[in-house]
């Protein structure tokens, strides 16, 4: 016996198809808006290039970044060593290439940690309100009241400085801004008809938050997170510069700048490459963030 689809099944299928087409249409419009912003495309290209440099660092680096040749300390750039040597005799180009790995690891992983914590706290506070909102909001306000760099220096000094510690310390220190943004959006979403319909259908609070609320606030979060990666890279460089971030001999742009500080008058070439790389990387993420902001803004016209 052949079972014919019921009217309800056909309606649900049509509704799902319409939603799918709507999402594809919105993605297409967002991509067209993003393509119109040429600096955003340039930032994307630079970030992809940096990712490739980080992945293929062992292939691209001409020498070991930790190899020391004391007979060539501070030697100026040459054909065989285009960026010269640092103050203890290590190849600057190789260390700069490997430093890309540290910058991207800290920037991306710390941002991921902060986004997960911030979205969870902000969505919980905004959705439940009342005492839960009050407690979580006071925690956010307290965290944002501390000068960020002072907080990072304190936490890094308490724990043993390392790459892992740097990622975690930065990640758990910068989530407050995401929580505040998400909370404000959720407060306006929780009374919408689709949330009330989900409640009436018997969906649990956790399911409503993660399946219906969070996806509707991710647009602004993605933009802020992209813009924030550059700031986190600067924070990592600052911690490494102060000796509280990534520890030698691991290549780090901030650590290399710290090493170059005492040789600036006699070996100025040591500070040029890591300084330029920090600038380019931060600029690339800022350009990408600006492009995403324009692309994901529904008020933008075609």
Q: Overview of this structure, please?
A:
With 302 residues, the chain is mainly alpha-helical. It has a single domain, classed as MetI-like fold, CATH 1.10.3720. Helix content is 72%, strand content 0%. It has helices at residues 7-36, 38-55, 57-60, 92-128, 130-145, 148-158, 163-171, 176-189, 193-200, 205-213, 218-241, 253-261, 269-296. It is elongated, with a radius of gyration of 24 Å. Mean pLDDT is 86; it is low at 7-20.
The first-level CATH class is given as Mainly Alpha
Strand content: under 5%
The name of the CATH topology is MetI-like fold
Question: Which H/E pattern describes the elements?
Answer: HHHHHHHHHHHHH
Number of domains: 1
How is the topology of this model organized?
Blueprint: H1 7-36, H2 38-55, H3 57-60, H4 92-128, H5 130-145, H6 148-158, H7 163-171, H8 176-189, H9 193-200, H10 205-213, H11 218-241, H12 253-261, H13 269-296
Q: What keywords describe this structure?
A:
0% strand; 302 residues; mainly alpha; elongated; 13 helices; MetI-like fold
Short description:
This protein has 302 residues and is an all-alpha fold. The chain has a single domain (34-58, 90-296), classed as Orthogonal Bundle (MetI-like fold), CATH 1.10.3720. It is built from 13 helices and no strands.
């Amino acid at each position: 016996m052949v079972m014919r689809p019921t009217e309800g099944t056909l309606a649900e299928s049509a509704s799902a198809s319409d939603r799918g087409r709507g999402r594809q249409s919105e993605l297409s419009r967002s991509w067209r808006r993003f393509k119109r912003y040429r600096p955003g495309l340039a930032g994307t290209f630079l970030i992809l290039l940096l990712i490739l440099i980080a992945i293929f660092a062992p292939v691209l680096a001409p020498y070991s970044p930790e190899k020391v040749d004391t007979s060539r300390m501070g030697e100026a750039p040459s054909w065989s060593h285009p960026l010269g040597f640092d103050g203890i005799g290590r190849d600057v180009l190789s260390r700069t290439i490997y430093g890309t790995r540290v910058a991207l690891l800290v920037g991306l992983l710390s941002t991921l940690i902060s986004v997960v914590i911030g979205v969870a706290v902000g969505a919980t506070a905004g959705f439940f309100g009342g005492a839960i909102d009050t407690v979580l909001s006071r925690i956010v306000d307290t965290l944002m009241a501390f000068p960020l760099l002072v907080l990072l220096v304190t936490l890094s000094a308490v724990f043993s400085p390392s790459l892992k510690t740097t990622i975690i310390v930065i990640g758990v220190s910068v989530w407050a801004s995401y929580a505040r943004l998400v909370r404000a959006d959720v407060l306006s979403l929780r009374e919408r008809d689709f949330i009330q319909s989900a409640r009436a259908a018997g969906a649990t609070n956790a399911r409503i938050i993660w399946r219906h609320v969070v996806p509707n606030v991710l647009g602004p979060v993605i933009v802020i997170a992209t813009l924030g990666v550059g700031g986190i890279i600067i924070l990592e460089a600052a911690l490494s510069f102060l000796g509280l971030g990534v520890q030698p001999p691991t290549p780090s742009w901030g650590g290399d700048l710290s090493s170059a500080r005492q040789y600036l008058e006699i070996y100025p070439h040591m500070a040029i490459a890591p300084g330029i790389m920090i600038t380019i990387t931060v600029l690339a993420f800022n350009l990408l963030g600006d492009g995403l902001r324009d692309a994901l803004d529904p008020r933008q016209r075609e």
